[in-house]
TrEMBL record:
<keyword id="KW-0808">Transferase</keyword>
<comment type="pathway">
    <text>Amino-acid biosynthesis; L-methionine biosynthesis via de novo pathway; O-succinyl-L-homoserine from L-homoserine: step 1/1.</text>
</comment>
<feature type="active site">
    <location>
        <position position="353"/>
    </location>
</feature>
<keyword id="KW-0963">Cytoplasm</keyword>
<comment type="subunit">
    <text>Homodimer.</text>
</comment>
<dbReference type="InterPro" id="IPR029058">
    <property type="entry name" value="AB_hydrolase_fold"/>
</dbReference>
<dbReference type="InterPro" id="IPR000073">
    <property type="entry name" value="AB_hydrolase_1"/>
</dbReference>
<comment type="similarity">
    <text>Belongs to the AB hydrolase superfamily. MetX family.</text>
</comment>
<keyword id="KW-0486">Methionine biosynthesis</keyword>
<keyword id="KW-0012">Acyltransferase</keyword>
<dbReference type="Pfam" id="PF00561">
    <property type="entry name" value="Abhydrolase_1"/>
</dbReference>
<feature type="binding site">
    <location>
        <position position="225"/>
    </location>
    <ligand>
        <name>substrate</name>
    </ligand>
</feature>
<feature type="binding site">
    <location>
        <position position="354"/>
    </location>
    <ligand>
        <name>substrate</name>
    </ligand>
</feature>
<feature type="active site" description="Nucleophile">
    <location>
        <position position="155"/>
    </location>
</feature>
<feature type="domain" description="AB hydrolase-1">
    <location>
        <begin position="49"/>
        <end position="345"/>
    </location>
</feature>
<dbReference type="GO" id="GO:0004414">
    <property type="term" value="F:homoserine O-acetyltransferase activity"/>
</dbReference>
<feature type="site" description="Important for acyl-CoA specificity">
    <location>
        <position position="322"/>
    </location>
</feature>
Length: 380
C-alpha cells in the first residue's frame, strides 16, 4: 500500500495517570484516574501550536491515523487532521483525549474501583462537561501546554470547546464549536431519555453491574444507538440513500427486516453495541442533558462568556435538525452581546447532524481557511 502523504500514519495511544483526586461537579470524588490520549505533529518551542480535539458522544482519543496498516477504519476525524489537511499536523500539535467515564481506556464504569477491587459499574458517578474540561486541563499541564491555539469539537465536543472558554478563559485562543448548541432542547433531552430507558430496561443490565454477571445489555444499547442514529441523519439524506427500497421483491407481511433502511439501522446498532459500553452511553447522554454554562450565571450566556478573550468559529449545517442552525445562532448572539469576536457559517449539506464528520467542500474550505489564520497567529 502506497503511504498517504496526507495521513498522520501509524499512531499509538498514550496513557496519563493522575493520583490527585478529582472532585466532580456533582460532589463525588474520583480518587485517581487515567486518561487515554493520542498526539499528532510536534509541539513547537514556544508551546503555542497545540490544538485540543474534543470528541462527541461515541468518539474517543483515536482521532486520526491507524494503529496497524491493515486497520479497516482510521481515527474518527481522519478527514480533518493530517499533513496538509485543515488541522495541519505540519503546523499544529494535535491532542485527542478519551473523556473520563468513557470506554476506550480512560477511567470509566468498566474500570476497577480501587475501593472494591471490582468494576465501578453503577457506582461510577455522573460526570458533566465541566468535569471533562478540568480533567483535560490537568493533561494540558502534564504536556506543558499553558494555552491552546484552539479547542475544537463537534456536537458534544463543541459543547466542551465552548465550556473551555468559560472555565479556563485565558487558556484558549480560539474556540471552534461545530454542529453544537448552548444547551439541549426539551426534545433532545427526551430522545436521550428514551435511549437510556432502552438500556435501563434491558434484562441483562442488572442495574449497571452487568460486568459481574458476565453479560452485556446489547439489546438495549442497540436500540439506543438505532434511535440516536436516526437523529444524526437528515430525511433528505436517508431518502436519497435508501428511500423505500425493499431487500426483496414484495412485502413479506411480517415484522422482520424488509426495508433497506431497517437493515442499515440494525447493522449500525449491532456494530455499536459490540464495541461501546452501556454505562458509558448513559453517562455521555446525561452530560449532554446537563450542559448549560449559563446556569450558574443567572441564565445569561453572555455573562458566562464575559471573561473569555478567545475568538470563536461557530458552524452549523442546514439539514441538522438535532442541533439546528437556530441553536448555533443562539451562541452567536450571546457572543455578540458579550462583544466577542465570532465568525458564523451555515453550511449547505444533506448529511444532517453527522455533517461535521463529512467532507462537504464548503465546510472543508472554511475549516482550512480559518485554521490557516490560527497558524499564522501563533507562529506555527
Amino acid at each position: 500500500m502506497t503511504p498517504d502523504p496526507h495521513s498522520v500514519g501509524i499512531v499509538s495511544a498514550q496513557c496519563a495517570e493522575f493520583d490527585e483526586p478529582l472532585v466532580l461537579q456533582g460532589g463525588a470524588v474520583i480518587p485517581r484516574y487515567q486518561l487515554m490520549y493520542e498526539t499528532y505533529g510536534t509541539l513547537n518551542a514556544e508551546r503555542s501550536n497545540a490544538i485540543l480535539i474534543c470528541h462527541a458522544l461515541s468518539g474517543s482519543h483515536h482521532v486520526a491515523g491507524r494503529y496497524q496498516p491493515d486497520d479497516k477504519y482510521p481515527g474518527w476525524w481522519d478527514t480533518m487532521i493530517g499533513p496538509g489537511k485543515p488541522i495541519d499536523t505540519n503546523r499544529f500539535f494535535v491532542v485527542g483525549v478519551n473523556n473520563l467515564g468513557g470506554c476506550h481506556g480512560s477511567t470509566g464504569p468498566s474500570s476497577i474501583n480501587p475501593a472494591t477491587g471490582q468494576p465501578w459499574g453503577s457506582a461510577f458517578p455522573v460526570v458533566v462537561v465541566n468535569d471533562w474540561v478540568h480533567a483535560q486541563a490537568r493533561l494540558a499541564d502534564r504536556l506543558g501546554i499553558e494555552r491552546w491555539a484552539a479547542v475544537i469539537g463537534g456536537s458534544l465536543g463543541g459543547m466542551q470547546a465552548l465550556r473551555w472558554t468559560v472555565t479556563f478563559p485565558h487558556r484558549v485562543r480560539h474556540c471552534l464549536s461545530i454542529a453544537s448548541a448552548p444547551k439541549l432542547t426539551a426534545q433532545n433531552i427526551a430522545f436521550n431519555d428514551v435511549a437510556r430507558n432502552a438500556i435501563l430496561t434491558d434484562p441483562e443490565f442488572h442495574g449497571g453491574d452487568y460486568y459481574q454477571h458476565g453479560v452485556w445489555p446489547k439489546r438495549g444499547l442497540k436500540l439506543a444507538r438505532m434511535l440516536g442514529h436516526i437523529t444524526y441523519l437528515s430525511d433528505e439524506g436517508l431518502g436519497g440513500k435508501f428511500g423505500r427500497q425493499l431487500l426483496a421483491e414484495g412485502y413479506q407481511f411480517g415484522y422482520g427486516t424488509e426495508f433497506e433502511i431497517e437493515s442499515y439501522l440494525r447493522y449500525q446498532g449491532d456494530r455499536f453495541a459490540d464495541v461501546f459500553d452501556a454505562n458509558s452511553y448513559l453517562l455521555m447522554t446525561k452530560a449532554l442533558d446537563y450542559f448549560d454554562p449559563a446556569r450558574h450565571y443567572g441564565g445569561s450566556l453572555p455573562a458566562a462568556l464575559a471573561a473569555s478573550p478567545a475568538k470563536y468559529l461557530i458552524v452549523a449545517f442546514t439539514t441538522d435538525w438535532r442541533f439546528s442552525p437556530e441553536r448555533s445562532k443562539e451562541t452567536v448572539k450571546a457572543l455578540l452581546d458579550a462583544k466577542k469576536p465570532v465568525v458564523y457559517a451555515e453550511i449547505e449539506s444533506v448529511h444532517g447532524h453527522d455533517a461535521f464528520l463529512m467532507t462537504d467542500e464548503p465546510y472543508m474550505r472554511l475549516m482550512d481557511a480559518y485554521l490557516k489564520r490560527v497558524a499564522e497567529e501563533v507562529g506555527a
